[in-house]
C-alpha cells in the first residue's frame, strides 16, 4: 500500500521524472496491468521520463523503450530494447550424436550456447532465415526459433559461471 500511495503522490504532483524501484512487486496480475497502462499513459501524455529498476526482466521488456544492464557494478549494456533484440534469435535444438559439442559456439557464430537437456539453447545474431541455415549446417534437429527475450540477453551479457551442484549438495 505504501508503494501504491507513493506512486499516486508522484502522479498527482505531475512529476517530470519518476524513479520506480521494483514497482510491480506485490501486485496481482490485474493490478500490474492497470499500473503498466497508467504509467504508459502518464509518460506519453505528460512527457514524463520513467526510470524503472527491476529483477523481473519480462516485466521490463513489456514496458521499456530502452534498458541499461548492470553486472557486478558495471554497465554492460545501455540502449534501446529494439537494438538489444536487433536481429537476435533464440534457438533450441538437438544435435546428432556424432557432433562435437566443443565446436558448437564457433560453428554457429553464436553469442551464447548452453546445454539445455535434451539439447541446446543458443542466441544467434541473425535473421530467422539465417539462423535456420546455420542450424541446418550443423545438422541440428527439433529446431525451435524465436526472437530473443531480455532475460536471455541478460544471461548472455552476464556470462554466468557454471556451478558444480554435486560439490555443493553431494
Oligomer state of the chains in this structure: single chain
Low-confidence stretches: none
Strand neighbour order, sheet with most strands: 6-7-5-8
Shape: elongated
List how many beta strands DSSP finds. 8
> Which CATH class of the largest domain applies here?
Alpha Beta
Give the N-to-C terminal Cα separation. 43 Å
At CATH level 3, the topology of the largest domain is: Alpha-Beta Plaits
Enumerate how many helices there are, as a single number. Answer: 8
Overall mean confidence score, pLDDT: 84
Which CATH architecture of the largest domain? 2-Layer Sandwich
In the CATH hierarchy, what is the superfamily of the largest domain? YebC, transcriptional regulation domain
> How would a crystallographer describe the biggest sheet?
4 strands, antiparallel
Which percent range describes the beta-strand content?
25-35%
Structural class: alpha+beta
Helix content: 40-55%
Order of helices and strands: HEHEHEEHEHEEHEHH
Describe this structure in a few short sentences.
By secondary structure, this protein is of the alpha+beta class.
Can you give a write-up of this model?
The protein is an alpha+beta fold and 170 residues long. The chain folds into two domains: 2-64, Rossmann fold (3-Layer(aba) Sandwich); 83-158, 2-Layer Sandwich (Alpha-Beta Plaits), CATH 3.30.70. 41% of the residues lie in helices and 29% in strands. It contains eight helices and eight strands. It has helices spanning 2-12, 29-46, 57-63, 81-85, 104-108, 128-137, 150-158, 165-169; strands at residues 17-21, 49-53, 66-71, 74-80, 88-94, 112-116, 119-125, 141-147. The strands form three sheets. A four-stranded antiparallel β-sheet has the order 6-7-5-8, sandwiched between helices. Strands 1-2 form a two-stranded parallel sheet.
Amino acid at each position: 500500500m505504501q508503494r501504491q500511495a507513493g506512486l499516486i503522490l508522484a502522479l498527482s504532483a505531475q512529476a517530470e521524472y519518476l524513479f520506480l524501484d521494483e514497482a510491480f512487486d506485490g501486485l496481482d496480475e490485474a493490478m500490474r496491468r492497470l499500473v503498466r497502462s497508467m504509467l504508459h499513459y502518464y509518460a506519453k501524455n505528460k512527457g514524463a521520463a520513467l526510470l524503472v529498476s527491476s529483477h523481473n526482466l519480462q516485466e521490463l521488456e513489456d514496458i521499456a523503450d530502452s534498458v541499461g544492464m548492470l553486472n557486478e557494478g558495471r554497465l554492460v549494456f545501455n540502449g534501446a530494447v529494439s537494438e538489444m533484440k536487433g536481429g537476435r534469435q533464440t534457438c533450441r535444438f538437438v544435435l546428432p550424436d556424432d557432433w562435437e559439442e566443443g565446436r558448437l559456439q564457433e560453428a554457429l557464430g553464436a553469442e551464447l550456447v548452453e546445454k539445455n537437456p535434451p539439447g541446446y539453447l543458443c542466441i544467434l545474431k541473425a535473421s530467422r532465415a539465417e539462423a535456420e541455415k546455420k542450424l541446418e549446417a550443423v545438422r541440428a534437429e527439433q529446431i525451435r526459433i524465436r526472437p530473443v527475450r531480455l532475460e536471455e540477453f541478460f544471461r548472455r551479457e552476464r556470462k554466468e559461471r557454471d556451478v558444480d551442484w554435486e560439490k555443493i549438495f553431494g
